[in-house]
Amino acid sequence: PTPPRPCEAYRAEWQLCRSARHLLHHYYVHGERPACEQWRRDLASCRAWEQRRSDEAQQSLCESERARVQAAQKYTLVWALRQSPPADWHLPLPQEKDE
């Protein structure tokens, strides 16, 4: 078996996380420094998996990917999606009626 992503992808994510631009953006949005350690551990696990076929590295990397997917799925949509447009979508807007 191969890693879920190429090791180059983990290296790119780790480098992006450590970049000055990402640091400033993350600090502005979240008020704290980004946690890049997980990307470094994932990169090390990926390399160990590819080079030594390490079972520990494989398990660690798969758990990390599962956690990443679950974290992305736990956020709900902000807006409720509509199934059809509103009934009065074609009528002029209120500010257009005054003119």
From TrEMBL:
PANTHER family: UPF0545 PROTEIN C22ORF39. Pfam families: PANTS-like. This is Synaptic plasticity regulator PANTS. It comes from the Eukaryota. It is found in: Synaptic cleft. InterPro entries: Pants/Emi1-like. Belongs to the UPF0545 family. The lineage of its organism: Eukaryota, Metazoa, Chordata, Craniata, Vertebrata. GO terms for cellular component: synaptic cleft.
